[in-house]
Amino acid sequence: METKVEKRGNHIGKKKGGLVTMPFIFANEVCEKLAVVGFNANMISYLTTQLHMPLTKAANTLTNFGGTASLTPLLGAFLADAYAGRFWTLTLASIIYQIGMVTLTLSAVLPTLRPPPCKADQVCQEASSGQEAILYVSLLLGALGSGGIRPCVVAFGADQFDETDPNQTTKTWNYFNWYYFVMGASMLVAVTVLVYVQDNIGWGWGLGIPTIAMFLSIIAFIIGYPLYRNLDPVGSPFTRLLQVSVSAYKKKNMTMVSDPSLLYDNDELDASISLGGKLLHTKQMKFLDKAAIISEEDNTKSPNLWRLNTVHRVEELKSVIRMGPIWASGILLITAYAQQSTFSLQQAKTMNRHITESFQIPAGSMTVFTYITMLSTIAIYDRLLIPIARKFTGLDRGITFLHRMGIGFVISIFATLVAGFVEKKRKHTALAHGLVDHPTTTIPISVFWLLPQYSLHGMAEAFMSIGHLEFFYDQSPESMRSTASALFWLAISAGNYISTLLVTLVHKLSAGPDGSNWLPNKNLNKGKLEYFYWLLTLLQVLNLVYYVCCARMYTYKPIQIQEKETNSQPEKDGLELGNRV
Description:
POT_fam, MFS_trans_sf, 65% helix, mainly alpha, disordered N terminus, globular, transmembrane transporter activity, membrane, two-stranded antiparallel sheet
């Protein structure tokens, strides 16, 4: 096994990777985020004012697009881990994304691809099915491109740092903080500069700028190829998981061995998928261990993997299953977060956004406070909180990613709770000034009343989302890290789809015979949006209880490091964390 590892190491190249690759990798992610956030931040305005969609339809279109763009990373991760590798998957996905952005920009520039402007005293003409089709094709191409970029850019960037090298001081948890910081900075530009351009200059330039930036990022990313530390694909992880499941089922009637050391093990077979260390046997889910029981029919030198699997491969499946409950707990936070670009934005449009007499904040730019808070929290956490926490816990990363996620959940609960009270204040002001029946008239209440909910969501994001991402990368089998990163985006996808379902159900079930509704299409002043926010708060409280139970029962993956003594410490820390949680 040592010989094969050394050969693989020479293929990678000892001098490749490291900090020098970050500008090329981050450029790709920055431009993808400029494009996605620059459109999403103001998309509700584009759909309602340019395509004349009803509010609930526009909100669901937005969350459906976000859900699809976060679901496709499963496909991109599969291609990267099984066949193409992360570099080529990133390159191809970026080109597809570029085509989608060009098409989307054309749909905003050409008058024939959107309905005519509204005329006074006339009902606005909604977009035709053909015009909507052009929009949806553009969004679908963008979603497919995101599917290759999102899971691979995270894992590909982390691959550039070899923690088995004692001379390398940069750790992957540092990288995740940097990744989210750079991503947040690009989002900040998107919700300020791009939204301003969209509102004041036009959607053609507002979408054209990130389209051009995306083209330049593809060129920069390809130029960096000689510097990258590339890991070869090692076959489909989904096939291995299925093989273990089938093997365990076929041997379900066999008696379990008394000693786990009798289970099948083959270092040569597992060499390509266990370079970072072999997974050790765990006592949970013993029924899967039957996949590693050697029967009289099995050939241990050249095994049929649909009948016999190694302990390492069995533990890969166990690791994925163990991550499932933690993965599911992150869905509702995304559901709550999604309201910033839908109903929170609609709140902002009704409020006084003037900073000076001649300048007012675009409603779509309100998320700037989310990103500023998120970036500030990440900086404070990385530079101040981690060194302090390290003195008490003795852990290099300060606190466990499970504790970090838990803090994010608590903050998110306060964000939606506060949002409900702010909505009551907004409606009370509208009532006091006789503006309930005038949805387009600005209510004399400062938009900065929304600042707490936006800022709290940013703080929650800094804790929960980074912890979630780090959890998937750290606890997934090494050969499945693109797939694990895709699980992070799958949770975002599920959160957006749950938001669509929740909005649809609330809109339908809260409809009264007099036309009242918690979430009205035309006039938010007559709705009960605060009830919707408090429903989200209650659901998140229940979710927090669920998460705490899952975190307390979670078992960290045990790894046997065979290459270097220095590698044992991080895993030792991980096992200690598991005991504390």
